[in-house]
Design goal:
The chain is α+β, with helices and mostly antiparallel strands and 364 residues long. Among the domains are: 95 residues, Coagulation Factor XIII, Chain A, domain 1; 103 residues, no CATH class. Strands 10, 11, 12, 13, 14, 15, 16 and 23 form an 8-stranded mixed sheet that branches. Strands 2, 4, 5, 7, 8 and 9 form a 6-stranded mixed sheet that branches.
Amino acid sequence: MIEEQSAFKKYRVLIVAGLVILILVIVLAATFLTSTRNLTLVEGKEAVTLKAGDAYTIKWSAAKVDRVSIILYSNTGVTWIARNIPASQGVYEWKSFVYQKPGNDFRIVIFEYPWKKGNLVSYSNKTIQILGAKYTSCEDLSVEAEFPFIASNYDNAKKLFITTGSYKGDLGGLEGADKKCMQEAGKLGFTGNYIAFLGDDSISAKERITKPSIFIKAEGSLSLVEGTTCHRLFAENTERLVEKFTLSAESVKLKIDDEMIKNFGHIWLGRLTPNLKKDCLTINNSQEDFSFDTTCQNWSQNKEKIYSGNVPDFAGLDRCYNDAGKSIPANIVGAWGSVISSDGSTGLIGRSCNSSMHLLCVEQ
């Protein structure tokens, strides 16, 4: 009996230690099994200001999350930073985008990848300010972008933009179209006097450009040290501007950036040049639908047809001839507009005046 008590005393410490270890293992296992999934951005206390192109370290903590993606969010849109990276990585070295548009409302967002309903997401609590990258000249930017950029104070530099709004053919004449350009320029913060690159029966769009002009995109890309901005070169002169509407597919993406392409095939033009035909306009390349006028009757009409259904014998409409020599009444009310063909090339096409189209606005 005494020997048994001695053995118990001898091993009691080991037994107690073993029980403690077992309890700790059970507690840790239970904690792990019951812990909640988590994904949280780790932020510093100070506000973050970056110059476009600067590096920035993004940190986060994650639990029970396999993969994540990161985006840069602002009121104007979303840009991907990283896709499908290990959540356990916990850190990502991001070099902010050289061409990032400046702003002070950016936020980092990290979310569980691939995204689906119920996935975890974490937004930065602090906004990030991104300043425009500063170059000594627009030539520096041109070399890096592999596309010409012009300074805003360059001699004869004239800004242009495509309206965000779209309009039917009753523009209120050239004067009304110009007014629409000025209204949109004001909303977008573009200074200067803008007119619509648009022609009517009396004057062509080309003839309305009366000043020597080098055309640049109105929206600036980056800021220079002295405060001027760099703008993408769009056309070296009026002749080159006109040529933008007759580009081959190979040239379109080189000479018109992706942002403009989406609207470039939907612009009212009317008489683009003095020698452009004024009558018997085929609508949407149809050989059965003709408009006698090519400017929505000096931009005063928003109709599609003069007569619905069959044209009555007494109508007295002007007549046009299709390729087969058939005489067709010009029953459509139409105008010249731009188009981007299925192969990617640009061109001109007849549009009925009830079509909704954009305006190309140029500074003069």
